[in-house]
Sequence to fold (370 residues):
Amino acid sequence: MANLEEKEKMSPWQFGLVVTSGLLTARLLPATTQFVHEAQQFAWLSSALAGILFYFAAYLIIRLGEEFPQETIGEYVPRLFGKAFGMVIFAIFITILLLNVINCAVALTTVYSVFLFDQTPREALIFTLLIAVVYCVMQNWGTILRIIQVLILALPMLYMFYSLIWLNFDILNLLPLWPDDFAGIVRAVAYHTDYFPGYESALVLLPLATRGKTSYTRTFGWGFAVVTFMYAFGAIAFIGSITAKAGASVPSPVIYAMKSVELPGTFIERLENYMITLFFPVTYISMVISYFAVAEGCRKYLKCSEHRTFVPVFLPLIFFVSHFADTPARREVLRLLDTYIVFFFSFFIVPILLILVRRKKGRAEACQAE
Fold:
């Protein structure tokens, strides 16, 4: 008989599954145009390189968290940098997660307001989405974990619908086979912050995971490998179905590719609507994880008893910024801000924190030896 008891702790595999399941969101829909414009036919190679790069960033984050397995980043950073610098670093960390929530809300409601609910004000969609996220985040972690495990089932369904674009695949669209602009492939990697968002939440969620025989880096590695394969393989299908030139010239090329798919002899029409609908649960997972990490991180940093205290605090900010991003130019500003902060945190702050921790440990061991 199945054990339906709520669990407040995750196994290493659950930990890797929960965090990496939040990587695939509606944020990739508008970002695809920009990175295909840079990488052209070699978008798949850019996605593969991005997967390696962002797994390395996640690997550093896991290593940092393992140095303090029972503490969140808000608890040990002040000890490493002092209260003032510790507060700045913690604020950057919270900003990254809030930007993920905002960018997810902006991307999802923008797509829904165009393709599904064109008569509904976008503000109403944002408000409804945030209410749904808040309701979930207000639960205890055991309940949130069970909800995420159910919603994860939407991931294979989403990819199944997306895979239908293989019906229009033409291998000639992948030519030439040798890139003329390697720099463009590298530049396109920067646009993949929209493809790999929210892994920073591991710095808060790690204390909620139990230690087992399997390492956290291994479970993360498998999760990133699966997601990277989906992106790279999906990019091949995408370019092969509509060409790189078309993908770089339309606002939502993934949806454009789905619109061109027809299933002869069936009554199923407008397949893109099914795919757009399935983007809700997968984006919802990422928003819930990030916002819970914000509330739980603030709880630990300020030494409060309940994470629910901090859930309503950031809602006005999220709503008004999401509402403000109502033009492509404003959405691009949010995307660039997120990109710069993510790279700065993942490849500058986290390595410095790791170096400081290792040095302090080395000094402590030297003192004990003496």
